[in-house]
């Protein structure tokens, strides 16, 4: 009989003396520490706690709360927290930073939240969550950094193993592992965890990450074995490409440090650690490159290598190594996983040695093949996004920047050599690719069927926090493709593409930040990546165009249009989460960056940047677009100064923003005609979007933009920067119908044109047959995903009450759509904005989560009156408490 935990829990709850009262009360859900659920291995001595109030009653709100923290969960349900008791705080906040007794390393803490609502009712149940500290301090590491040698050119990946014996009853056990490179950890023959590609990529010589695991159930009483397999990752980049990662200053043979901390029932603690008593040997992974592929020789397998009884007498001794950096910190973020298994949509057999698998969609990740064949049979799995006319895989669109020194490292081509010992399954350990098609070729005949190969969509496994659904299929396809590209480019940092580069291009990421935050709960990834920014920033404030970097990108591709990530991303995190921490952490970095531009370009105009990257046809002045981004950075800096109580800075940068705005408009705006520069789409929309246009000119400039778009046949004529601006500039200034015509366009150039031609992701270039810049999985044109939430959905954060404490709801009932629904889970819960055309007019349903409010800006529909829950209203804006509301235009 299978025990149903959920049913049992429900039964226990129903039997609780509080159950009857609680059913009439409210719930507290989504308790998180550092935006993670019950995390272990937290280093932050002052972690943040967040929660949500679940109550569907109209006007439901939290009026006060109390948090208790203790190391004893049972005591916490009955008494006050010994380590922290906030007392009852009259507050509607759902975010608080711990300020109790000093947290100790390697300790599990429990926190209890109690709420009181607007009716003075308190929650009738103890809502408890937990978190566990990790090392907290570098001095707490006991293990040594070890490796097998110091030859970065050695290709096979190394195995490491050690055995130990436990004779006492184990209460709990944790494994802490840091690495230069990538690793897979196993205990007693079983891989620990379901993460991929740990630890996340950082500037290894400045910050190295460690990961924590609960391994209590993996240990046995008696003899145990620990195994570690190391991969190169970005630490030991052996493939050669234009960015010179093979010459990185940190490059070396992979290395790791491990502590397994065992707590016994008698209270004693033992740490099993990496050191000279470990043994090492080369693995069957004869080559691994995060950039190209992985090669595996199954004939070299060492069966049972990570089990206790394996004979390692012929293995070599390890060597000591220095740590990659002096800053080893916890990896506190959503990990990379094989999130989705995708079965092959079709299989084409060319002959007995050549097969083509089609997954039916473009993904980032890996393939897994299951095959049988004679020993020594060499199987090549070539991954690509498109096909030649003859049906074979074409990678010419994605290997443009690869500079191989020989033919031993083919691009996106895994190589498997069979052992001849029966059916074998192979999936790369330390690599991922961007692909839809896999061409399998073998040196001897093999038999494959459609089930012989599956794909795994790999990415940072961030929770979904939004959804869009409409009556227009092309819009739904664009939204899905945008999300596919966003996730395909999220690997512990945002990338540009999952195949050709895998680089953290700042420009792509600042364009896609809102799209990402509307659709996914990605704060942990961005906080990590902005720490990478802080690691990479030069003393004078300059940032590289790709982050992390080996040193490439300080001389090309950076500038305010790209590296405004340092300001734009912390600001958007503040807007979406209502959390000041990242803004505060990056404040000095933003200030240094702005000061550098101010010193270098004292007129207020800057020509530093790449400009409107990959435009359709019209080219705009770099000075125009870069100055707009410079202005945006200064405005953000001034706002941040005000929020953080830096009055002098607020005044200084408010004045600088005015100086930039005046200089910009004096040069580029013809006030009589309302035209910027030559009047092309980017030149008109970017100033509107970043609100550098003088108040008195906005109406005329927006009108001219709409006319320009109409004269362009409601097609795009923008590049990267214009794409961020064009739809928003139209929608925010009275031309949402024009914006929608562009968004839903199905002919070239448009997003819909890609969909009409079979795209399942977003492309890098508008023409499908372009000769260069033709990755088929880029996020850089992905602002349309955010626009769908902001314009037809109308969901926006309120800068005065960020984190969707007050939701701005300003939907646009655009012509051409019969139905549209946007959902977003913010810090207070799920926001729903849903409208539908009917026989009488338009119905609009709004759900505002508990403990938040909404300002509904009501569209004017000609000859239609507005009703709220059946009652006629005349206001242009309605202020709503939490709850469900129905508006009708009829």
From TrEMBL:
Pfam families: Bac_rhamnosid, Bac_rhamnosid6H, Bac_rhamnosid_C, Bac_rhamnosid_N, Ig_Rha78A_N. One of its GO terms (molecular function) is hydrolase activity. InterPro entries: 6-hairpin_glycosidase_sf, 6hp_glycosidase-like_sf, Alpha_rhamnosid, Bac_rhamnosid6H, Bac_rhamnosid_C, Bac_rhamnosid_N, Galactose-bd-like_sf, Ig-like_fold. Keywords: Hydrolase, Signal. Gene3D superfamilies: 1.50.10.10, Galactose-binding domain-like, Immunoglobulins, Maltose phosphorylase, domain 3. The keyword Cell membrane does not apply. Residues 168-340 form the Bacterial alpha-L-rhamnosidase N-terminal domain. It comes from the Bacteria. Residues 794-865 form the Alpha-L-rhamnosidase C-terminal domain. Residues 466-790 form the Alpha-L-rhamnosidase six-hairpin glycosidase domain. Its EC number is 3.2.1.40. The keyword Magnesium does not apply. Residues 349-459 form the Alpha-L-rhamnosidase concanavalin-like domain. Residues 1-23 form the signal peptide. It catalyses: Hydrolysis of terminal non-reducing alpha-L-rhamnose residues in alpha-L-rhamnosides. PANTHER family: ALPHA-RHAMNOSIDASE (EUROFUNG) (PTHR33307), ALPHA-RHAMNOSIDASE (EUROFUNG)-RELATED (PTHR33307:SF6). This is alpha-L-rhamnosidase.
């Amino acid at each position: 009989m299978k025990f149903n935990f959920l049913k049992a829990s429900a039964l226990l709850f129903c039997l609780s003396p509080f159950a009857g009262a609680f059913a009439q009360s409210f719930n507290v859900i989504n308790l998180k520490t550092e935006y993670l659920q019950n995390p272990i291995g937290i280093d932050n001595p002052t972690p943040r706690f967040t929660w949500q109030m679940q109550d569907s009653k109209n006007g439901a709100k939290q009026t006060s709360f109390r948090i208790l923290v203790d190391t004893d969960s049972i005591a916490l349900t009955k008494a006050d927290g010994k380590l922290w008791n906030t007392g009852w705080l009259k507050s509607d906040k759902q975010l608080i930073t711990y300020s109790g007794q000093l947290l100790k390393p390697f300790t599990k803490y429990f926190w209890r939240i109690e709420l009181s609502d607007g009716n003075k009712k308190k929650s009738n149940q103890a809502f408890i969550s937990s978190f566990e500290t990790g090392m907290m301090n570098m001095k707490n590491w006991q293990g040594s950094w070890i490796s097998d040698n110091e030859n970065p050119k050695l290709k096979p990946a190394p195995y490491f193993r050690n055995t130990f014996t436990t004779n006492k009853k184990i209460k709990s056990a944790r494994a802490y592992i840091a690495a230069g490179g990538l690793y897979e950890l196993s205990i007693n023959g079983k891989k620990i965890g379901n993460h991929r590609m740990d630890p996340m990529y950082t500037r290894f010589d400045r910050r190295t990450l460690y990961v924590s695991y609960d391994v209590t159930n993996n240990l046995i009483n008696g003899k145990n074995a620990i195994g570690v397999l190391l991969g190169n990752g970005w630490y030991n980049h052996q493939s050669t490409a234009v960015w010179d990662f093979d010459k990185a200053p940190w490059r070396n043979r992979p290395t790791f440090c491990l502590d397994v901390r065992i707590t016994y029932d008698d209270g004693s603690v033992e740490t099993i650690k990496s050191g000279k008593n470990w043994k090492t040997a080369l693995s069957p992974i004869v080559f691994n490159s995060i950039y190209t592929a992985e090669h595996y020789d199954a004939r070299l397998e060492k069966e049972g290598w990570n089990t206790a009884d394996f004979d390692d007498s012929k293995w070599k001794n390890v060597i000591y190594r220095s740590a990659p950096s002096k800053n080893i910190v916890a990896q506190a973020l959503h990990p990379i996983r094989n999130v989705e298994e995708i079965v092959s949509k079709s299989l084409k057999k060319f002959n007995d040695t050549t097969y083509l698998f089609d997954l039916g969609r473009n993904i980032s990740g890996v393939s897994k093949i299951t095959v049988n064949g004679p020993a020594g049979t060499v199987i090549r799995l070539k991954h690509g996004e498109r096909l030649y006319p003859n049906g074979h895989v074409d990678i010419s669109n994605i290997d443009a920047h690869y500079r191989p020194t020989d033919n031993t490292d083919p691009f996106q081509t895994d190589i498997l050599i069979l052992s001849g010992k029966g059916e074998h399954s192979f999936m790369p350990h330390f690599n991922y690719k961007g692909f839809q098609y896999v061409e399998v070729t073998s040196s001897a005949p093999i038999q494959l069927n459609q089930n012989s190969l599956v794909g795994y969509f790999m990415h940072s496994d961030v929770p979904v926090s939004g959804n869009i659904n409409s009556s227009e299929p092309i819009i739904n396809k664009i939204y899905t493709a945008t999300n596919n590209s966003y996730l395909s480019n999220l690997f512990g940092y945002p990338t540009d593409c999952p195949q050709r580069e895998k680089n953290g291009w700042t420009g792509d990421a600042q364009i896609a930040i809102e799209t990402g935050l509307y659709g996914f709960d990605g704060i942990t990834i961005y906080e990590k990546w902005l720490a990478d920014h802080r690691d990479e920033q030069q003393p004078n404030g300059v940032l590289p165009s790709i982050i992390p970097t080996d040193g490439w990108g300080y001389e090309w591709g950076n500038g305010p249009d790209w590296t405004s990530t340092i300001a734009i991303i912390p600001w958007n995190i503040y807007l979406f989460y209502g959390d000041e921490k990242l803004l505060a952490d990056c404040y000095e970095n933003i200030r240094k960056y702005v000061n550098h531009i101010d010193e270098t370009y004292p007129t207020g105009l800057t020509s530093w940047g790449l400009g409107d990257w990959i435009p359709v046809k019209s080219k705009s002045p770099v000075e125009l677009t870069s100055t707009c981004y410079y202005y945006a950075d200064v405005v953000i800096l001034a706002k941040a100064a005000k929020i953080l109580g830096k009055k002098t800075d607020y005044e200084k940068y408010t004045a600088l923003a005015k100086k930039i705005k005046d200089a910009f408009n004096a040069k580029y705006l013809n006030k009589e005609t309302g035209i910027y520069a030559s009047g092309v789409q980017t030149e008109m929309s970017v100033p509107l979007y970043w609100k550098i246009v003088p108040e008195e000119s906005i109406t005329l400039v927006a009108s001219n933009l709409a006319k320009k778009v109409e004269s362009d046949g409601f097609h795009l004529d923008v590049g990267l920067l214009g794409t961020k601006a064009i739809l928003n500039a139209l929608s925010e200034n009275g031309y949402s119908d024009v914006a929608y015509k562009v968004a839903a366009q199905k002919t070239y150039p448009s997003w819909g044109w890609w969909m009409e031609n079979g795209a399942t992701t977003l492309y890098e270039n508008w023409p499908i047959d372009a000769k260069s810049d033709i990755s088929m999985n880029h996020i850089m044109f992905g602002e349309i995903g955010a626009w769908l939430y902001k314009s037809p959905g109308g969901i926006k954060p309120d800068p005065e009450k960020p984190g969707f404490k007050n939701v701005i709801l300003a939907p646009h009932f655009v012509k051409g759509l019969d139905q549209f629904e946007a959902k977003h889970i913010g810090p207070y819960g799920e926001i729903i904005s849903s409208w539908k055309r009917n026989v009488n007019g338009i119905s609009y349903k709004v759900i505002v989560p508990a403990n938040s409010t909404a300002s509904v800006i009501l569209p004017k529909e000609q000859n239609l009156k507005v009703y709220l829950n059946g009652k006629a209203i005349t206001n242009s804006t309605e202020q709503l408490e939490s709850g469900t509301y129905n508006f009708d235009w009829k």
